[in-house]
């Protein structure tokens, strides 16, 4: 809550006085904002009438917390940050100086020791500490593991920076293997390893990679061609329903329908592209948003074909290239072929590699296209449409190819999504999804594939982590559900990350084509106001 | 014919509400050139504030005259939503002014998600039905006009007149129009641009709060996710009328209202939103900057 005061008073006031004043302002504003919404709660009584429940204590807690937060930020946070900038400039270490103080060998050893002790005690934690404290201990263990991993990454930062893509792809390829191995060692058997890996591979791996792929697809439209698309989820829906309908009605295989779904989505991309060719900026944004809503409303209302809001279930699983299947009843079920124990984890691991492959395909195509004339035309279009036209670039085909290519990858991701869920309904294709994908593209630094992948990992992984915080129930009582706060925190995180890094995680925009020498142009030097 | 006039009246009512919300979008767009995605949720906050005030009034007094109750609801909702929009502008949009175009759009979407989920968390996810406040219906030659509809249209007309006066005849309105044309020049001439922008957000929020109160009175139910659909339709209305143009926003709101009520009356109620969005796309193909919008002059 940035409350600005007149400068004359700031000169007289000491930092403490200023902080107190700002805290009082913040408290007054928080009181005003929350008095009706937190202080009172509308609830239904037995006869279904609305009644008000009073919660003044909670309101007081929230207001006091806001004041304390504001006070600490103004009194200590701001001077610390300002001081840090001076130290950074003086030592020449720039952004690393905070990190070098944060990651130190003694801390690292302490973290490893904590993890070791807690893992050793894992089974008897509940007995030793009681269920409440054991929850905290597990949370502490997770934090310690994250810290230890971060320190290792920090120690090898120059090496990682130099070989980022190769290391990243290797890590992603080995991820399910490592998860299964670690859990097998931990649980004492291979079967336990596979069973435990479900959550890690499915919730974290596949979920994040789907968003990486969608964001990379949208990146072609928004990041490269500079066309603001708020209805990207429509193409995702087209791909998903194409596979769901053709797969269930005609029994066609995933491997035939994957390209078909991509082609269909690309066709819709062109169809959307035609009417909006003349529109610019925000007019384009609203028409794409309207298009996304139209597709969703048609899916809901065209009940004869799409089964309405109930959705389509029983979508066939992907086969292992027709050689093996993942249905237990089939004669060529994968576990029967290899003569191993049945487990649903095989399918998830296979899907993980499938989406990883699709992601890499997207990245490969994007990187190659950027070097081709059409990719360069997209980037020229993003920078300046008039200059582009006067250089003889056909803006119509340029825009249409951008829409079609972006939509095609959305379609691929959609048919994968349908195969993974086994069920599609219009619920999955609401505007919020488009907004999340767009937010990932922008937070990642538009046009940067690595930045977008990092943003997807942070935003989607972060919200998935919130599902795991069950121990908070012990703090706030059994009625407390952390899932409820998931989207609230997601929205706030979007705002905070954007304020912290307005240019995204990787904020430099490097032109692909150079005249003489390669010179990166920092994002802060490129022209403002052109997205 | 009676049926048609009946639908016309329904459309007018709906269009008034959309128009009031659309003004908030178009004013903010006019002055700082950003789509304030959180505006639909500001409207929802207004409806919820009105609901809570209604319940407080019901709990404190045995019976309150409807007119006074509505007035109190409207005024409290206006104050509260103004405060929300003012705070959001300060926290989420002001630091990004001068950054690239998509940055404030993303914080606006983030704020929209945060606001609707904030209300979900604090007020619960269920529908909140209120007993009907105004139930009188007049019957004029087979056309039924409810008192609710008359109130909505009257309140809208009064507010628009007030608003027109504010924008066209006062020094505040002059400052706003100056900022809209050229922010840097306005600042050089001694206009406090930050303050003018804050006031613009407050004015938009106040109109949205009135729309929220009227929405609650008309439909008698509100839920935390109610900000999205009216928000998107009001934004559609603002674009249809030509974004940045105040009469355009009202005209667009009325058009969307008419399209919706006519389509649900003569064709199918399921596809009324599809019709509204399709007409937006068709209008924009022929008039790329809306009906009353100024065509953008490209300078090289």
From TrEMBL, chain A:
It is a multi-pass membrane protein. It comes from Mesorhizobium wenxiniae. CDD domains: TM_PBP1_LivM_like. The chain crosses the membrane at residues 23-40, 52-73, 105-128, 140-160, 166-187, 208-238, 250-271, 283-302, 349-369, 400-418, 430-463. GO terms for cellular component: plasma membrane. Keywords: Cell membrane, Membrane, Transmembrane, Transmembrane helix. Residues 21-113 form the High-affinity branched-chain amino acid transport system permease LivHM N-terminal domain. GO terms for molecular function: branched-chain amino acid transmembrane transporter activity. This is Branched-chain amino acid ABC transporter permease. It is found in: Cell membrane. The keyword Cell membrane applies.
Automatic annotation (TrEMBL), chain B:
The chain crosses the membrane at residues 12-35, 42-62, 68-88, 100-122, 142-167, 199-222, 234-259, 271-292. It is found in: Cell membrane. It is a multi-pass membrane protein. The keyword Transport applies. One of its GO terms (biological process) is L-isoleucine import across plasma membrane. Keywords: Amino-acid transport, Cell inner membrane, Cell membrane, Membrane, Transmembrane, Transmembrane helix, Transport. GO terms for cellular component: plasma membrane. Its main location: membrane. One of its GO terms (molecular function) is L-leucine transmembrane transporter activity. Signal peptide: none annotated. The keyword S-adenosyl-L-methionine does not apply. Belongs to the binding-protein-dependent transport system permease family. LivHM subfamily. PANTHER family: BRANCHED-CHAIN AMINO ACID TRANSPORT SYSTEM PERMEASE PROTEIN LIVH (PTHR11795), HIGH-AFFINITY BRANCHED-CHAIN AMINO ACID TRANSPORT SYSTEM PERMEASE PROTEIN LIVH (PTHR11795:SF371). This is Branched-chain amino acid ABC transporter permease. It comes from Mesorhizobium wenxiniae.
């Amino acid at each position: 809550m940035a409350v600005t005061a007149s400068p004359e008073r700031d000169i007289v006031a000491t930092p403490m006085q200023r902080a107190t004043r700002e805290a009082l302002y913040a408290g007054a504003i928080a009181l005003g904002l929350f008095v009706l919404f937190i202080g009172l709660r509308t609830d239904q009584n037995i006869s279904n009438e609305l009644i008000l429940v009073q919660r003044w204590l909670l309101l007081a807690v929230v207001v006091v917390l806001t004041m304390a937060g504001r006070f600490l930020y103004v009194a200590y946070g701001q001077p610390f940050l300002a001081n840090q900038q001076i130290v950074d400039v003086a030592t020449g270490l720039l952004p690393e100086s905070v990190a070098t103080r944060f990651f130190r060998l003694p801390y690292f050893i302490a973290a490893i020791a904590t993890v070791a002790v807690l893992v050793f005690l894992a089974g008897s934690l509940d007995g030793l500490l009681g269920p409440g404290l054991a929850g905290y201990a597990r949370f502490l263990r997770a934090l310690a593991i994250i810290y230890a991993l971060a320190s290792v990454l920090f120690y090898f930062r120059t090496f990682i920076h130099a070989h980022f893509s190769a290391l990243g792809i290797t890590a992603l390829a080995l991820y399910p293997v490592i998860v299964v191995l670690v859990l097998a060692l931990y649980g004492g058997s291979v079967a336990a390893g596979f069973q435990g890996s479900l959550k890690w591979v499915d919730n974290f791996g596949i979920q994040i990679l789907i968003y990486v792929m969608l964001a990379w697809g949208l990146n072609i439209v928004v990041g490269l061609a500079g066309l603001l698309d708020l209805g990207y989820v429509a193409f995702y829906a087209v791909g998903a329903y194409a596979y769901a309908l053709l797969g269930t009605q005609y029994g066609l295989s995933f491997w035939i329908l994957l390209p078909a779904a991509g082609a269909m989505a690309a066709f819709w991309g062109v169809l959307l592209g035609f009417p909006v060719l003349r529109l610019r900026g925000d007019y384009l944004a609203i028409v794409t948003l309207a298009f996304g809503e139209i597709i969703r409303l048609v899916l809901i209302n065209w009940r004869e074909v799409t089964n309405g809001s109930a959705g389509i279930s029983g979508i066939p699983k992907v086969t292992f290239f027709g050689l093996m299947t993942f249905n237990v009843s089939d004669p060529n079920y994968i576990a029967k072929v290899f003569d191993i124990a049945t487990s649903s984890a095989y399918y998830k691991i296979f899907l993980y590699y499938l989406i990883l492959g699709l992601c890499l395909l997207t990245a490969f195509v994007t990187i190659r296209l950027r070097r081709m004339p059409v990719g360069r035309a997209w980037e020229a279009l993003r920078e300046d449409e008039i200059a582009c036209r006067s250089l003889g670039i056909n803006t119509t085909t340029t825009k249409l190819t951008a829409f079609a290519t972006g939509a095609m990858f959305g379609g691929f991701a959609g048919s994968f999504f349908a195969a993974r869920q086994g069920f599609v309904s219009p619920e999955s294709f609401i505007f919020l999804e488009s907004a999340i994908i767009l937010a990932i593209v922008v937070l990642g630094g538009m046009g940067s594939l690595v930045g977008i992948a990092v943003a997807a990992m942070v935003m989607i992984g972060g919200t998935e982590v919130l599902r795991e915080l069950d121990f908070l129930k012990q703090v706030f009582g059994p009625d407390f559900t952390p899932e409820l706060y998931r989207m609230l925190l997601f929205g706030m995180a979007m705002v905070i990350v954007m304020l912290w890094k307005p240019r995204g995680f990787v904020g430099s925009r490097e032109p692909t084509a150079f005249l003489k020498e390669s010179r990166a142009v920092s994002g802060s030097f490129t022209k403002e106001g052109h997205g | 014919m009676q049926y048609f006039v009946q639908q016309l009246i329904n459309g007018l009512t709906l269009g008034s509400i959309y128009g009031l919300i659309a003004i908030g979008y178009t004013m903010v767009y006019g002055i700082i050139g950003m789509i304030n995605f959180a505006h639909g949720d500001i409207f929802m906050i207004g409806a919820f504030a009105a609901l809570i005030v209604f319940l407080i009034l019901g709990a404190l007094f045995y019976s309150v005259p409807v007119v006074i109750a509505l007035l109190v609801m409207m005024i409290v909702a206006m104050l509260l939503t103004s405060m929300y929009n003012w705070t959001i502008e300060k926290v989420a949009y002001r630091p990004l002014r001068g950054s690239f175009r998509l940055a404030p759009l993303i914080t606006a979407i983030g704020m929209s998600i945060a606001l609707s989920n904030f209300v979900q968390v604090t007020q619960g996810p269920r529908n909140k039905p209120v007993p009907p406040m105004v139930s009188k219906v007049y019957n004029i030659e087979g056309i039924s006009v409810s008192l609710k509809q008359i109130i909505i249209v009257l309140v809208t007309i009064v507010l628009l007149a007030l608003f027109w006066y504010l924008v066209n005849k006062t020094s505040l309105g002059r400052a706003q129009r100056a900022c809209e044309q050229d922010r840097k020049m306005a600042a050089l001439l001694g206009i406090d641009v930050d303050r003018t922008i804050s006031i613009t957000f407050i004015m938009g929020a106040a109109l949205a709060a009135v729309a929220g109160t009227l929405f609650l009175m008309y439909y008698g139910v509100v839920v935390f996710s109610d900000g999205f659909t009216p928000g998107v339709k009001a934004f559609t209305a603002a674009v249809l009328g030509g974004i940045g143009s105040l009469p355009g926003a009202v005209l667009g709101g009325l058009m969307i209202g008419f399209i919706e009520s006519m389509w649900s009356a003569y064709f199918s109620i399921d596809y009324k939103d599809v019709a509204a969005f399709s007409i937006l796309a068709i209008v924009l193909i022929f008039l790329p900057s809306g009906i009353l919008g100024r065509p953008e002059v490209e300078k090289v």
